[in-house]
Prior knowledge:
- Chain A contains seven helices and 13 strands.
- By secondary structure, chain A is an alpha+beta fold.
- Chain A has one domain.
- In chain A, a hairpin with a 6-residue loop joins strand 8 (94-99) and strand 9 (106-112).
- The longest helix of chain A has 29 residues, at 135-163.
- Chain B has three domains: 7-54 and 163-236 and 328-393, FAD/NAD(P)-binding domain (3-Layer(bba) Sandwich), CATH 3.50.50.60; 104-142 and 397-500, no CATH class; 245-325, TATA-Binding Protein.
- Helix content of chain B is 37%, strand content 18%.
- In chain B, helix 1 runs parallel beside helix 11 and helix 11 (355-370) runs antiparallel to helix 12 (375-405).
- The A-B interface holds A 52-59, 162, 165, 167-169, 188 and B 146-149, 511, 514-520.
Amino acid sequence: xxxxxVLNKTAHADTKVITERSAEYGDNVKFxxxxxxxxxxIQSNYPIFFSKDGDTGQFYPVALFxxxxxxxxxxxxxxxxxxxxxxxxxxxxxxxxFQGPEEEKNAVASINMDNPRVNTEKGEALFTAEGHQTEYLxxxxxxxxxxxxxxxxxxxxxxxxxxxELLEPFTLEITLNDGSNNQLLGFYTVxxxxxxxxxxxxxxxxxxxxxxxxxxxxxxxxxRIRALIxxxxxxxxxx
Amino acid sequence: MNNKIQRVVILGGGxxxxxxxxxxxxxxxxxxxxxxxxxxxxxxxxxxxxxxxxGTWPSMRxxxxxxxxxxxxxxxxxxxxxxxxxxxxxxxxxGEDYYTHPFTVPHSYGETNLAPHWxxxxxxxxxxxxxxxxxxxxxxxxxxxxxxxxEYAFQLNYGYxxxxxxxxxxxxxxxxEKLGVTHIKANMQSIRTAxxxxxxxxxxxxxxxxxxxxxxxxxxxxxxxxxxxxxxPLRSVNHILFNNTALAAQVxxxxxxxxxxxxxLSTAQTAGWIWDIGLPTRRxxxxxxxxxxxxxxxxxxxxxxxxxxxxGEQAAADAMVRKIQFDPGHRAEFWHKNCVAVGMSAGxxxxxxxxxxxxxxxxxxxxAEQLPANRxxxxxxxxxxxxxxxxxxxxxxxxxxxxxxxxxxxxxxWRENRKASSIPERLAEQVELWRHQSxxxxxxxxxxxxxxxxxxxxxxxxxxxxxxxxxxxxxxEVEALSRAGSLFQENARRTEQLKDSLPTNRELIxxxxxxxxxxx
Lengths: 239, 520
């Protein structure tokens, strides 16, 4: 459920946010949206693909955590086992909302009061007794701003990929140690052959915008698929 | 003598002309220089085009795709919507009866003929709903795909409903700007004939003489080249298909978010039927009937009654009704000398199965594919073309007639329609055969048959036709019986899944306007 409120030092004076990672708090997701500005950290932990928003059909990059719905192979009893947690996961329970008339909407920081992380007993406080933002809240707000920029980057990045017809559907077939076959469907990736055939002008443009680096980091992230399969096999071994 | 076929001239710039130009130009690269392949279209600036048919077959998807058209642009600029088949009301008995003829073939059609097995449960479920999920999409006005489905791909097979005027304009822009077609705005005044009887050039009022190696007559029902110049006669089929008059109207929606029908609605009347085609912007509604059995006055009353019942009193009062008369039939041949007719110049028939645009697609595709290398080859290609399209017209006529002969309506028009003297022999024989065996793959004698056997199944069993169970027990049927039950169940499950996941036409079209469809 969602019940978003604009952040306010009076209304949220006693509000606390639990920051531990677990399925209980909604971290059991198969993938999350990511942004070129965090690709460097993402690609050393997770495979990066592209997915379509079911509501708009628009592409966006995602970091993959599992092979099935609600499967996050990085999540265990001891938390989230990775050197970096994607911003879209860390942002919870905060969100950027928009206020005002259509032409001059203002981005405002909001909090989902129905998120299970939100309570008044334990976790990180948002405001000090004096009504100042805590360090935790400041970090959260910085992250929201980065996400806001990231959304705009994604739009332009994806448009550049589509204009140059660089994306293609991708199907991964995995045979696990128990002999079962699994298919990963509905994701897209950069076509490496097309990348190799790009001409000077296009390459220069992609490079200037920083997209070239992002594309090669996405490609490099493929190496993380193996690690993900190993995690899945290890899980099967335990069962 | 250089008799290579390099200069193709299309006379007439309606939907038929531009669609033909686009299909040929998609296949043959138009040269930059005067030496190579040239395609021009001569369009009269004075004649307004008649929008023939606002419904297409699913074939239009690949036709547009081959031309390099973005489906998103097509939706945005042609007021296009999704068509998933035809919904027939009152055809069987003239009451509340209805059936659907969806574009998707029955479940597992390649391996199993479900029709004989459906016969056993026919009292519980109609044929289309038993074997295919698509008919059920009519009730909720569902779209055949989602916003995340790529352009031209689908969850359920579909064609389009479109605004024919906007479509011609859209194609013109694409043909001229993207495919290199030359657009000449001029009126033809006379024809210069070569010694061998070919058309050497057409003489125009403002663009001078336009020479060509092949002339495509897309000039509409007047057939300026094939009909008026070459005097190739029209073969009327009004003794088989009686309808020869249409009253057409455009009806607005009550509000911008009214649902858009997923099927062409076809509602039988006392001496004809009413079409109802939903576009995002308006509905196109018309009554096509036979003036031998109905007066214009009564036909108009029936049309206005329909509009009133489905769109309200005001819409009926405001309706501007346009009358169109036609002689149903086709030319005795379509390709004569170096001239081939495409579109209404080749023939016209009531739009019961939306055959007008698909015939343009098929004709243009065959011209493009078989474009003769030189003048000597042209007569051979012309012969093949004529044989093929005479066959196709006959099959369309048979298939349209089938809708009428299965009816149990009692008005004169319907009774006369069932008289043996009005039924083509081949069709009569087929129907006789189908009383004992249901149509399936063996009923398809040509690889590119216009109507697959599945279409016959939908119409026959939709209309309540009965095929007797076979007298002997066939091994193949016993085997199929074990599969039939689970196939029916699978179909029912898939129907529910689709209803749960698909948006409505209106929702999806609004999203296409806002976000566009992806190419992959």
